[in-house]
Amino acid sequence: MTALGRRVVRRPAAGVGTSEPERYDIDVRSFADWPPTLTSALKIRPTFSYGRFGYAIESEFADAILTDDGLTITNPKYATTVGIEMDDKILTVNGHRPAGGVFMAVLNMRRDPDSNIIQLQLDRRGTIMQRTLVLH
């Protein structure tokens, strides 16, 4: 059990540079008493970091820098409960780049209430990993 819900982990398969997805079951009711809300605590500002132009994003969930390469986590905060660590780079969200992927995931969940799965692909020090978040 984590602060966000039940964690179900699948064992990584044998392979070089990749691993099987880890699955995290998240009870969204656990967010009801998590003030402040993510949207009210979100701060975004332009930045030049990692030799690239991007956006510094600060939230209660995690701090990160969004560039063309992906979303690099600078302070994971609550994101550690779903297996995200400092310096992880989120490459895709449900198959889309992070800038549009988060928006697409939320839009799909609003259109189809049964669409409660978020697939993350991330790069952790050269190893490509998958995270599956199942919202209940």
Description:
By secondary structure, the chain is mainly beta. It is 10% helix and 40% strand. It has 1 helix and 9 strands; from the N terminus they run βββββββαββ. A 9-stranded mixed beta sheet has the order 1-2-9-8-7-6-5-4-3. The longest helix has 14 residues.
Main sheet strand line-up: 1-2-9-8-7-6-5-4-3
pLDDT averaged over residues:
76
CATH topology title: Pdz3 Domain
Total domain units: 1
* Range of strand content: 35-45%
Low-confidence stretches: 9-16, 34-38
Given the structure, what is the number of helices? 1
The CATH architecture can be given as: Roll
Question: Which structural class should the secondary elements be placed in?
Answer: mainly beta
- Highest CATH level, the class: Mainly Beta
Shape: globular
Helix content: 10-25%
Largest sheet: 9 strands, mixed
- How many whole angstroms does the radius of gyration measure? 15 Å
* C-alpha end-to-end distance: 14 Å
Beta-strand segment tally: 9
